[in-house]
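ugh ok fine here u go
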Amino acid sequence: MKGKEGFSKFINAKPSNASVKEKLRQEKKAMVKAKRDAIEKHFEEKRMAKNTTGGGLPIAEKPKKKNLKKK
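structure:
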């Protein structure tokens, strides 16, 4: 048993820095995607509401031309 005592420190070794960094990178990527999807959903709902109410701002009509004949 004396030969295995030196390896006990490897049993509960902490994860490498690269794996920790990759985990953080994946979490950040997931948050960015969730935020992008939420924004897209918000604006899609806004577009749908605009289309169902008949549009946003009314289109201004052109003024009618007066008949300017010289007499």
